[in-house]
Amino acid sequence: MSLLSNFELAESRKKQLEGLPINPTGVVLEKIVSPTEALINGKIVILAGTNNYLGLTFSKDCIDAGIRSLETQGTGTTGSRMANGTYSGHLELEREIAELYSMPYSMVFSTGYSANLGTMAALLDENNAVLIDSEAHASLFDGCRMSGAEVFRFKHNDPSSLEKRLQRLGERANSTLIIVEGLYSIRGDCAPLREFAELKESYNSYLLVDEAHSLGLYGRYGRGLADQLDILDKTDFIVGTFSKSLGTIGGFCVSKHPQLGLFKYSSRPYIFTASPSPAVIASTRSAIKLMKEGDHLRKNAWESARNLHGALESIGLDLHPIPSPVIGVSFQSEEVAIQFWNILLESGIYTNLILPPAAPGGGAVIRCSVTAAHSVEQINKIGACFKSIAKELGLSKAA
Question: In three state form, how does the secondary structure of the chain look?
Fold first, then answer.
């Protein structure tokens, strides 16, 4: 068995996908027209598969801030935060994130993925146990593995499953980290954070919430689901990304524990990765200001989300019952999901096709991400295309 024989399964999958009319893993956006439209295969399509929840990628404020920074500070830092990669803007962004959450300290990382890796690796070691939701993001699992901690999964969004795990840990529970997300990115379901926070308090454990997809959409100023459910004071660590609602790239960790300020001395992704470019930092700072003032953006996103969810639910498709700007349509058959996704794209609608092993529970998911920038007409067209294709494929259960 050679080293490269590990890629045989990947090669088989590649051949299967490349045999499709359009390879869902190789879609090229030839031109971005707006936050909600792009040129794909020579045709303008509606983007219903981005994480651009507040529609800020074309914000004049964010673009102008980035241009000014490019012109005055150059294209990149060329170094890590521990070397020459900390500019005044990085520190200002960290201060602004800490103020946003009314917490004493925050850390900014180059990506959301590295924020999760860096936080876990600094916080945990082989003496700790971690209880993590079974459907948590891959970066959270990778960070736990990097740390060397003992990792236990509990059933998705199931407080009773979490409590059983805590009970089995006994005295170890008081040094255990519980890891969940706010809004989950595949089906669009929210964590029962109040129940998790109560268990965390009862067992004297620690709670980390990944607000990657809930940032900007929930809570006062868009601070996330923990804020909306009024459990920020019971949340030990919040991690998030700039690459969704804020429309840039990067990640952060914020905490009520002042020890977070010491993480930089042991967080390998922070120490050994080049820091975010000054332009990204400037655009992100502008986006946070717009997010804080963005109640109208949240209103638009939620109105569109409820309308599209209602339209797809009326067809009889398999959805999470509670609307959110992430709407995942589940299919038992991977082949049917692929066919459905291809017809959607041919009809001028780009969505995300999520296949195993990324799709939970087997099968496949077609995910729509609704944004503040989508028009009523675009949302109506997305719903109409789903209805037409569901009828064509014999999937509609509507009367």
Answer: CCHHHHHHHHHHHHHHHHCCCCCCCCCCCCEEEECCEEEECCEEEEECCCCCCCCHHHCHHHHHHHHHHHHHHCCCCCCECCCCCCCHHHHHHHHHHHHHHCCCEEEEECCHHHHHHHHHHHHCCCCCEEEEECCCCHHHHHHHHHHCCEEEEECCCCHHHHHHHHHHHHHHHHHCEEEEECECCCCCCECCHHHHHHHHHHCCCEEEEECCCCCCCCCHHHCCHHHHCCCHHHCCEEEEECCCCCCCCCEEEEECCHHHHHHHHCCHHHHHCECCCHHHHHHHHHHHHHHHCCHHHHHHHHHHHHHHHHHHHHHCCECCCCCCCEEEEEECCHHHHHHHHHHHHHCCEECEEECCCCCCCCCEEEEEECCCCCCHHHHHHHHHHHHHHHHHCCCCCCC
Q: What is the pLDDT of residues 112-139, one digit of tens each?
A: 999 999 999 999 999 999 999 999 999 9
Model confidence at 178, pLDDT cuts 50, 70, 90, reads: very high
Write down the domain spans for the chain. Answer: 13-54+294-392, 60-292
We find that the CATH architecture of domain 60-292 is 3-Layer(aba) Sandwich (3.40)
- Whether the model pTM is above 0.85: yes
The dotted CATH code for 13-54+294-392 is 3.90.1150.10
